[in-house]
Amino acid sequence: MEKQGKRCLRRVVLVPAPFQGHINPMLQLGSILHSNGFSITVFHAQYNSPDPSNHPDFSFIPLPDSSSDHNILAGELIAFALELNAKCKARFPECLADEVMRQQGSDINGIACIIYDEFMYFSEETAKDLNLPSVILRTASASSFLTRTALINLKAEGHIPFPESRSQDPVPELYPLRFKDLPFSVFGKLDTFLQLISKGSKIETSSAIIYNTIDCLENSSLAKIQQQCQVPIFPIGPMHRIALASSSSLLEEDTNCLAWLDKQSCKSVIYVSLGSVVFMDVKELVEMAWGLANSKQPFLWVVRPGSIRGAKWIELLPEGFKEDIGERGYIVKWAPQKEVLAHSAVGGFLSHCGWNSTLESISEGIPMICKPCSGDQSANARYVSHVWRVGLELESELERGEIERVVRRLMVDEEGKEMQKRGKILKEKFELCIREGGSSNNFLKQLIDMIMSF
Ligand code: UDX
């Protein structure tokens, strides 16, 4: 790789999907590859564009998507993603060809490959047309990928939608998942969602699939997927633990909560966050507020601005709530979540079970209360509570009495302590996986060899 006496870098082009839960793992992957000697160019949508100042070593190029935002405003994120693919399919080739030209004659020894989020599937065709290898990044768990295939098949066989009486029935061959754990989305109609996941699941000419997961966590699901596809699979997670620490938050992190955490006793705080896209109504906000207050546990609660329908932020919190909690509760718009989960004061996480949050929690040995809302979150919640047994699932509607009880079960009762012990063992397993000789470390080396061979 020497050119005119200088070390010649190879460039990897990344195409993340424009959502926080997808941007984070893609940029973490970029950091991992960068620290292994690759140059990184990120082609990103104009919606939710990442802040380049957080990654000064990367080049950022906006995609010429010019997507209208009516789907986003209407909460139709699935329709938005389909539209984005259609628009980029027409215009990405020219944009990327320009970049290829620009690279010629530079110190960079050409583009090695394009790594694209599975929901930015237009990239595969462009890569093929330009004779560039491509690799898929799937940011959700391997087990939840299998639920998508199951949903597509069950729909084709006429079992979807299913009657309420079937909601607890097991999904064939996917124990312990039930029909209610299938990945229905609240961000679009079923047919639109099926269209997106079918397109996102296809592998035409891509050379490999990267998963942000860990072999010891999802061994049997990964083996099933490997049986179904011809290309190698690289489970190289948890990527946030391997990448050099840097934030790719789209919202500003309120770091003052760390000073508040410093004042709390060890493992006493329940951290509450429903991620980057979930919405609540005011009734649920009020029930959550009283449930947390009545549990008498200290809590750190993320309420994303605009995430409560009909409210700007927390102005509709019930009267008397703030006086009741005093210093016991702390509410932020957005938290430095990884630092929060790593803080010694945090002893539990009430989460929607997005895959990043799930991995971040397990990596710190923090047991969870699972309140899934959409898509892959139900399968993640089921695995957390029934396979890895490091969490409790809150299956009812958000109701103050239920919240109070489940918080106390996790934070105070013996069953919570048992989960903490299992969480500690899982955390140690994660650490072994990313060390020299561990499975994620080995898969990462294989991935790098493959990219170097392109
Ligand atoms: C979405 C889907 O909801 C999820 O099911 C899918 O697996 C990924 O995309 P999202 O709601 O963004 O996920 O949740 P999650 O996957 O957990 O990602 C959220 C990210 O935002 C995490 O990396 C988390 O650390 C970060 N975050 C969240 C913060 O940095 N601060 C916060 O206050 C809340």
Which properties best describe this structure?
454 residues, Rossmann fold, binds uridine-5'-diphosphate-xylopyranose
- Mean pLDDT over the residues: 94
Number of structurally distinct domains: 2
CATH superfamily of the largest domain: Glycogen Phosphorylase B
Q: Residue share in helices?
A: 40-55%
What is the strand arrangement across the widest sheet? 5-4-3-6-7-8-9
Q: Determine the number of helices (DSSP H or I, runs of at least 4 residues).
A: 17
- The total of beta strands comes to 15
- What is the percentage of strand-forming residues? 15-25%
CATH topology of the largest domain: Rossmann fold
Look at the helices and sheets and give the structural class.
Answer: alpha/beta
Low-pLDDT residue spans: 1-7
Q: What characteristic shape results from the CA principal axes? A: globular
Bound ions, cofactors and other small molecules, one mention each? uridine-5'-diphosphate-xylopyranose
How far is it from the N-terminal to the C-terminal residue, by CA? 13 Å
CATH architecture of the largest domain: 3-Layer(aba) Sandwich
Q: What's the CATH first level of the largest domain?
A: Alpha Beta
Return Rg in Å. 22 Å
Please outline the major beta sheet. Answer: 7 strands, parallel
